[in-house]
Amino acid sequence: SPPGLLLLTSFLLHVEEGRASPTRLVCDNRLIQKYIGEAKDMEKKAGQCQALPALSCPTVLPLVDFSLQQWKSKSNETKRREILCDLALLVGAVAAAQGQVTQECGARQLSQLYQHANSFLLLLQTFSWEAGPWEPGCSPRSMEQTHITSIFLTYRQLVQGKLRFFFHDLAKDLCK
């Protein structure tokens, strides 16, 4: 079964009538640790693929570094929207890279990464706050890259950084 399916299934099992409840996902710290571990594993496996070519057409990746102090001053909705922007750009970058990579090992890792990143994107789109549904059209800080491994690095940094801190912040409110 695709790894992204597990994320989506674990989420759907905890949906309240009418609106998404991120409670289990954010209250059970083992889940985010599992996703961080999977991100590290995908990055490692992609690095082990033999002779990964540089992308002939550079892909645009979000810059996912952040200042913890600035991050803490943002509302949860602002954080969610920022992560959604990063994920949308990342999913697009993975899809673009998939079209350029024919090598089996690299293609397999990109497919897995696409499933994981897209699952988080769908998941965060369903979290409902006062601001209403998410609409694309944001423009996060970004950079062009030709190295496939940088896509995996960006995903790991996003999960390990913004996403983990976002879940931690949500847990303060939801997991009393």
From TrEMBL:
Gene: Thpo
Family under the similarity heading: Belongs to the EPO/TPO family.
GO cellular component: extracellular region
UniProt name for this protein: TPO protein
Database matches in PROSITE patterns: EPO_TPO (PS00817)
Keywords: Disulfide bond, Glycoprotein, Hormone, Secreted, Signal
Lineage of origin: Eukaryota, Metazoa, Chordata, Craniata, Vertebrata
Signal peptide positions (record): 1-20
Residues in coiled coil: none
Gene Ontology terms, MF aspect: cytokine activity; hormone activity
Organism field: Calonectris borealis (Cory's shearwater)
Record flagged with keyword Ligase: no
Subcellular location(s) per record: Secreted
Alphabetical GO biological process terms: cell population proliferation; positive regulation of ERK1 and ERK2 cascade; positive regulation of hematopoietic stem cell proliferation; thrombopoietin-mediated signaling pathway
Predominant place of localization: secreted
Keyword Magnesium found: no
Pfam families for this protein: EPO_TPO
